[in-house]
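Hi team,

As requested, here is the filled-out complex form for the adenosine-5'-triphosphate run. I kept the field names the same as last time so the parser does not choke. Let me know if anything looks off before we queue the next batch.

— J.
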Amino acid sequence: MRVVDTLEASGYEAWVVGGWVRDALMGCRGHDIDVTTSAPWQETARVLRAAGIEVHETGAQHGTVTAVVDGLPVETTTYRVEGAYSDRRHPDEVRFVTDVREDLARRDLTVNAMAYHPGRGLLDPFGGQDDIACGVIRAVGEPARRFEEDALRVLRAVRFACRLGFVIEPATQEALTAAAPGLADIASERIGQEIDGILASGRMAWALRHEFDVLAAALPELAPLRGFDQRSPYHAYDVLEHTARVCAGVEAVSGGCAARPLRWAALLHDVAKPSAFSMDDGGRGHFFGHPEEGARVAGRVMGRLAVERQTVREAQALVRLHDLPIKADVRSTRKMLAKLEDACPGRGAALAHMLIGLKRADALGKAPNCLAYAVDLDAHEAALRTELERGKTCAVSDLKVGGADVIRERCIEPGPGVGLILRSLLAAVINDELPNDREALLAELRYDD
Ligand code: ATP
Ligand code: MG
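And here is what came back:
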């Protein structure tokens, strides 16, 4: 509260606002603090610096400076309202005002439109506290106008409903469904942050079932999943309900804390099913090649949404391998590890656990005759643990011989041939045809010569 105290000691008014207030009322610790003040940003910067607080001018045109107190950033913004949004993305102008209530009125949701001051207490003109008590997401002001001004609010409302476990008030719901097509005009990296936020809440299944119009507007590649009849004895649900079950399933098998790549993979694992569909003479549906195509689509979608590259690569590997046949034996386990290690060096073991989690959730989301496979996977998980304890051999770098040995023993020049020979040795080790033992591998190199 040093920022608030310092500004007030200089004759300005200042409040803590937004997410920190909401989270504090719900008994959680906010991860960042926003302050709103009557001081113009130049004054904010001057007063805080005079008190020895570090200040960065991060968004002067919006009236925002970032103070750093005890190593934590405090975004400090002058009371403001936004003008018209002719492009549904950016307000045409920002106007500074003198009354904090006007500033609160421009905020998106009642639970986000409260201000707190240590001396004056809570300022809650839109009933945010009641909505928290009742678990309700409600737009501030007239919902249709608020969502039309800025379509990102549509996705934010869904993200907060997921994160807080709240329901959306009916008039707000009606307005946000109507405004959802406006998401097409929103910058894709901002959409990516919100989708990531929904996944991080662990409630993507709820969003798929209850807010699919919004998700399909944000991520058009999902649209064909709704109502897609799989015509398969293995599937009791359309691809959308199956996907929702898999999203819920990965949370269930990881105690509600599924890893990020696993969450993305659950959402996108069957995204290419509609385009890969074919029907045989018996009227049964097939989806040949959908994991590979799904991995391509996942790469494209996640790249567009600016998800960072490592998560994209890992999610793609999981999507590509989600139908990989595996057995609960050493050879099959090593092959699975090698494929994952190949796709994402250094991540084979972690991804193998995720892949088994994805397969388990996938089985739970199919028809009842597939449920037993989810239990069978216990044996695969056990085989994986045993293999990992025994010491891994799934990357060329784990071999007990290296490129220099190949060059010396085979008398060849450095170049791509060295890698090829190492990979053939790795394949032999994975297939149990050779032990990963230095002498044995050197003997093999000499023998072939
Ligand atoms: P989080 O915990 O996700 O950071 P937050 O509530 O702090 O939640 P921010 O995106 O950091 O959310 O925004 C801070 C505050 O700014 C919000 O609480 C809300 O009052 C306001 N806000 C943010 N984005 C919008 C928007 N698009 N339209 C209206 N108000 C917004
Ligand atoms: Mg915040």
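Two things worth flagging: The pocket of magnesium ion (ligand 2) is lined by residues 18-19, 32 (CB under 6 Å). The chain is about 50% helix and 10% strand.

Thanks,
J.
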